[in-house]
Write a structure and sequence with these properties.
By secondary structure, the chain is an alpha+beta fold. The protein contains four helices and ten strands. Helices cover about 35% and strands about 25% of the residues. Strand 1 and strand 2 form a beta hairpin.
Length: about 230
């Protein structure tokens, strides 16, 4: 078992890399600070006949312990710019992303798929409670909404976490790299039933996803939707 949940999205490795970088930096600083603290405790412990040394600080030391963290924070920020723009930039959502609407409310997730007419927001749309069905190897964009309070759309294996805020529509995209069932959770304390607000992400092959759409009365098939999206100006 690793430090983090299994990674099953295309950009999970980039996020994990930044996590481990921050962990390494803070780990080294933690060990160093604790070692200095232990040394101070032993070196400056009370001894009979020794007078206390009075000091008003050290400008050189204060400059160092201010400058070094500042440089590290800037370094982490610079290294994070690339992945951030790729994942959450204004133009980061792939043009061929499969669209799903996700509405959160106390205490469930409702995923809505376009119906057979190919238009979202019509009477033939299909809604699944606490289940998000997606195809493997295709980008998916989930548009988040909330009917009541702030919820947090959290897919730990995909490294996706985004708040669903009342009155806002927030898109978040990801691409699954393997088939299977994975956790869908709410990571925001949203009321007394917060712990019950969980669901599943079911990742299908492209063929199985089309079969699922057909069985549920949704559609058109994935390839047809992607072709329609690519044909738009």
């Amino acid at each position: 078992m690793g430090w983090l949940p299994e990674a099953v999205s295309t950009y999970a490795g980039q996020i994990d890399g930044i996590f481990y970088l921050i962990l390494a930096i803070t780990g080294v600083i933690f060990v160093g600070v604790e070692a200095v603290l232990l040394w101070f405790v032993l070196a400056y412990r009370h001894r009979e006949g020794r007078e206390a040394y009075h000091t008003h600080g050290n400008i050189k030391v204060e400059v160092i312990w201010t400058a070094v963290p500042a440089v590290l924070v800037v370094l982490i920020g610079v290294l994070s710019i690339g992945p951030w723009l790729e994942i959450r930039g204004a133009d980061s959502i792939p043009d061929d992303a499969y669209a799903v609407d996700m509405t959160a409310k106390q205490f469930e997730w409702n995923a809505t798929y376009v119906g057979s007419d190919g238009e979202m927001g019509t009477d033939d749309d299909v809604t699944q409670r606490n289940q998000l069905h997606i195809p493997v190897g295709r980008p998916v964009v989930v548009t988040l909404r909330s009917e009541d309070v702030i919820h947090s759309f959290f897919l730990p294996q995909f490294r996706v976490k985004q708040d669903a805020v009342p009155g806002m529509e927030t898109p978040v995209w990801f691409e699954a790299t393997q088939e299977g069932e994975f956790q869908l959770a709410c990571a925001e304390l949203c009321g007394t039933g917060h712990t019950r607000m969980g669901g599943r992400v079911i990742v299908h092959s492209a063929e199985d996803f089309d079969a699922w759409l057909l069985a549920e009365g949704a559609g058109p098939p994935l390839e047809a939707r992607l072709a329609s999206t690519n044909d738009q100006p």
